[in-house]
Automatic annotation (TrEMBL):
Gene this chain is encoded by: nuoH
Annotated InterPro entries: NADH_UbQ_OxRdtase_su1/FPO, NADH_UbQ_OxRdtase_su1_CS
Organism: Sulfoacidibacillus thermotolerans (Acidibacillus sulfuroxidans)
GO cellular component: plasma membrane
Entry's localization field: Cell membrane; Membrane
Name the UniProt record assigns to this protein: NADH-quinone oxidoreductase subunit H
Length: 330
């Protein structure tokens, strides 16, 4: 940790933190833009299609063109919408997606990392706020498809937050800390190595709950194009629509980075720079999410909710019990 992070706040320290936040913001925007491109190419390859290949060499500028197009599109507000709520909802969904990145340890030097002692709790608490923006957008649109999508999203994200949090408890018990930096360093010295080995049950629960939290296939009930047009953002256009899409893909990166930190040893690894190890592991996690989207069909809403409460939560509780027992024995 840098020395200025433990010293009293001054204007120079504040300026340094502000510059660091801006750098992370632009880096993540760049990563998200090419994550979308990567997803379209990977799914195209899996479905025996070409994917984006026209705008720029190998279609590399397609995502940039899409972003530029959305920023230029007209911002339409439905006549019967609740205007103030309609305008603020995408911001409420978007802002927390970047705030959670403050506690992710990207490198061994902890550059751009807050290093909070309650980093895990901070991530879960901040990511929960996005649910409000999604529900508010669906309700304020005064559209039946948007409302159903918003309600589905609220039920789904709140339900799957429980097994997501429970799946992390096993890692916290092994590391003895809520600090993400400490969790990574413990994996480097732990006799089991990466926590994916002793916490394989927790890891499986974490991955399933994370996909549901992201509203991605096979848990994309809140959007469900064949049923709800576009779900909670049916009435949104232009840059407000871009806010929702951007928030979704920032969370794809954030949850993959969190999974890498908790279960895959974070930046730890031989020979290569720490940031490169982190990038490789996070990219593999993201690729898996895309693989699932190209493979799995959408499940029914009753199956979705029943699976969370009747399967994932009991399995996550069993993992906590098993972790406690093994800690006492070993």
């Amino acid at each position: 940790m840098f020395s200025w992070q433990t010293q009293p706040l001054t204007w120079m320290h504040f300026l340094g933190m502000l510059i660091g936040a801006v750098i992370v913001l632009f880096l993540v925007l760049f990563i998200v833009m090419y994550t979308i491109y990567f997803e379209r190419k990977v799914i195209g390859w899996m479905q025996n299609r070409i994917g984006p290949n026209r705008v720029g060499p190998f279609g590399l500028l397609q995502s940039a063109a899409d972003v530029f197009k959305l920023l230029l599109k007209e911002d339409i507000i439905p006549a019967n919408a609740d205007r103030p709520m309609f305008l603020i909802a995408p911001i409420i969904a978007f802002v927390p997606s970047f705030m959670v990145l403050a506690v992710i340890p990207y490198t061994a030097t902890h550059i751009f990392t807050a290093g909070l002692n309650v980093g895990v709790l901070y991530y879960i608490a901040l990511s929960s706020i996005s649910i409000v923006g999604i529900v508010l957008g669906g309700w304020a649109s005064n559209n039946k498809y948007s409302l159903v999508g918003g309600l589905r999203s609220a039920a789904q994200m709140i339900s799957y937050e429980i097994p997501l949090g429970l799946s992390i408890l096993g890692v916290i018990m092994l590391a003895g800390s809520l600090n993400l930096n400490t969790i990574v360093t413990h994996q480097a010295t732990d006799r089991f190595g990466w926590y994916i080995i002793p916490q394989i049950i927790g890891f499986v629960v974490f991955v399933i709950a994370a996909i549901a939290e992201l509203n991605r296939t096979p848990f994309d009930l809140p959007e469900a194009e064949s049923e709800l047009v576009a779900g909670y953002f049916t009435e949104y256009t232009g840059f407000r629509f871009a806010f929702y899409m951007l928030a979704e893909y920032v969370y794809v990166f954030a949850i993959s980075a969190l999974g890498t930190t908790l279960f895959l040893g974070g930046w730890e690894g031989p020979f290569l720079p720490s940031w490169l190890w982190f990038a490789i592991k996070t990219s593999a996690f993201i690729f898996f999410l895309f693989w699932v989207r190209a493979t799995m069909p959408r499940i029914r809403i009753d199956q979705l909710m029943g699976f969370a409460w009747k399967v994932l939560i009991p399995v996550a509780l069993f993992n906590i019990l098993l972790t406690g027992a093994l800690s006492l024995i070993l």
